[in-house]
């Protein structure tokens, strides 16, 4: 290859990177706005809907215990308040039975993929907004909220998702 061909390839790659950066910036901005307003975006089955805190707490609020275990701390049992995640998905009128995956995306882009069967299982996957009776603080306040997905049957808390901003059903 000559220098001119390499230069053209480099320009094309730079253009592609710039386009991806612009697209990603827009997605992050939308996630940040939803996070600041304590909203969760849910998408799937040609549905795109945002749910506010006031809407979420009306979807079958439950108190439950779960053991948080991280590599930095000993396992600790906490009392959480939240809703079964399946309730939110049903409210958005999205069917899980024929889907492959439920992606939980955090404000920072961290994503956890769950099987629909896990989400449909009773007393397993929750969207929590209180821990030990107190609202889960936002990232800016040193917390893991305002929403956190908790999978009770995940023995080591490895697939819990803090700072939940979006739920995508595929």
TrEMBL record:
SUPFAM superfamilies: Oxidoreductase molybdopterin-binding domain. Keywords: Membrane, Transmembrane, Transmembrane helix. It holds the Pfam family Oxidored_molyb. The chain crosses the membrane at residues 6-23. It comes from the Bacteria. Residues 77-169 form the Oxidoreductase molybdopterin-binding domain. This is Molybdopterin-dependent oxidoreductase-like protein.
